[in-house]
Amino acid sequence: REHTANATRTAVRDAKAITQGVVDGVKGSGAINLNTASRDQLETLPDVDQERADRIIANRPYDRPEDLLRKHVVPQSEFDRIKGQVKAK
Predict the structure, then answer these.
(1) pLDDT for 22-31, tens place per residue?
(2) Is the dihedral of CA 46, 73, 16, 2 positive or negative?
(3) Are 62 and 35 in contact (CB under 8 A)?
């Protein structure tokens, strides 16, 4: 039961993130929202692979992009490459 409940929570969270990511994309906001972007959207960022995208998702929520550094999700060099392409609402 616990495994099923965890899987359900994860699926619901991911579905909400995908929906919000689509909405943001339609609005043409430009920057990717770290709190709502899907794994596929995060993987469009420089040097962000599936593993890194999963780490970004797992460490949500973010108050600001710099939280990626504070939470040790990405190294400084990677953050420098993506900081202009991400936001946190």
Answers:
(1) 665 655 558 9
(2) positive
(3) yes
Q: What is the mean pLDDT of residues 17-46?
A: 81
**3-state DSSP assignment of residue 74:** coil
Contact 21, 38 (CB under 8 A): yes
Q: How far apart are CA 2 and CA 81, in angstroms?
A: 39
Instruction: Give the pLDDT confidence of 67-77 residue by residue, as tens digits.
Output: 999 999 999 99
Judge contact between 32 and 86, C-beta under 8 A. yes
Identity of residue 61: P
Cβ–Cβ under 8 Å, residues 50 and 43: yes
d(CA 38, CA 65): 16
